[in-house]
Amino acid sequence: MALGIGLLMPPGPDGRPTAVYLIDMQAVCGACGKEALRRYFLSTPFHSLTLRKLERLFDAAPDAIEGVCEQCDAELQPEDVERWSLQYAPADGQGLLLALAEREGETAWRAVPHDHLDVQSQPVWSWDRQDISVVALPSLNEVTFTEAFARAMNPKSVLRQAILAFHDRSHQAPLGATFTESGACVVEAAPGLEFWIGSADGQHQAVASRPLRATHALLVEDGTIADGYPDAPARWLGDLATFLSEISVVAFVDPSAADASLRRHFHRFPIDLQFEDAGDILRVIAGDGADDHAALEFQPHAIAKEAARTGAAPGDIARAEIDRALTLLDFTNPV
Ligand SMILES: [Zn+2]
Predict the structure, then answer these.
(1) Are residues 179 and 242 in the same domain?
(2) Global confidence as pTM
C-alpha cells in the first residue's frame, strides 16, 4: 500500500477480516554464525483470535523463518532464531502489545496503552525500565490485558466467561461484570460494547431500558443461538448451548465508538483528509475531493450493527471496514 499506509485487518481468503501482527526475528546462521534479521507481517482470522491463540502464534513464530544466510547461502532454520519479538495492536487503534522471547528464556509481555501499531516501527529488542508509558504484564491473561487496555482482547471470550458465571455464580465473572437486581449479568467488554445476559422474559425490558444505545443484536433469544451469517454466535457459543436454556443474550453497541475509531485511524494516515457528516454517513475525503476515488463513505450504524451481531468491538470492526475499503479502492493515491 502506498504512502506508508499498512493494512492492519485485510480481508482473508474467505473475505472475513484478519488481524495483522508483526514478528521480528534475530537469527544466527547455523553454518557460519552470521547474524540475520527478519521481519514478518503475519495475519490470523480476527474473530477467533484470543489471547491464548496469540500466545501460541508467538511461541511458534520462529517456524516461519525462511530465506538463506547472506554470507554463506545456508538455509535459515527455526532453531537458528535466538530472539524474536511481537507487536500487536487492538484494531480500534488504541494500545500496543509487545512480547519478547529468547530461545532459552521466558516470554516477557509489555503493554503500551497510549501507543499503536506502526508497520514501519523499529524492531523491539529491549525495553527501557524507566519508561512509565510501558506497563510490564506479569503474565498475559484476560485480567492483565483488560487492566492495561481498558477492553478485552476478544469480547467473545468475555461473553463466554460471563455466561458461565451467570449459570453458576461460583464461576469467576469477567472483570467489570455486574449483576442487576433482577439477576441479569451485564459487562462492558470494549468501548461501546455491552453484553446483557438474563432470563428470556427480561430481554424486552433490557432492550427498552437502553434508549441511548443506538443498536443491539440478539445473540441468544430464549435459548436459540443466532446463526446464518458469517461469524454468527452459533460458531462461538454453540458449545455452551446447555447453559443457555431459557436465557437471552443481547449485545448493545454504541455507534459513536465506531465513528471515533474511523476518525482515529484516518487521522494517522499520512494524507490530507477531511471528514464530512452526512446523516448516518461519515464521508472521508482525500485532497480536494475532486477525484471520484478520493472519497470513502462509512456508516457507523452499520458498523455498530455488524459488531453487535458478531460480538466484536465496534472500534475493531471500523478498522476492518477501512481495510476492506482500501483493498477495493486505490484511495492512497489521490490525483
Ligand atoms: Zn551463514
Answers:
(1) yes
(2) 0.93
What pLDDT is stored for residue 334 in this prediction? Answer: 46
Asked whether residue 242 is domain-assigned, the answer is yes
- Outline where 71-187 has alpha helix (H): 142-149, 155-167
For residue 105, the CA-to-ligand 1 centroid distance in Å is: 24
Q: 58 vs 286, which has greater pLDDT?
A: 58
Co-location of 125 and 29 in the same domain: yes
Q: Ligand 1 centroid vs 28 CA: distance in angstroms?
A: 8
Distance (Å, whole) CA 308 – CA 159: 12
| Separation of CA 34 and ligand 1 centre (Å) | 5
Cα–ligand 1 centroid distance for 74 (angstroms): 5
pLDDT band for position 328 (cuts 50, 70, 90): confident
Q: What is the Å distance from ligand 1's center to 33 Cα?
A: 6
Within-domain flag for 335: no
Query: 159 and 233: one domain?
Result: yes
CA pair distance 74, 77, nearest whole angstrom: 9
Distance 36 CA to ligand 1 centre (A): 9
Provide the residue range defining the domain that includes 59: 2-149
Longest Cα–Cα distance of the chain, Å, equals 71
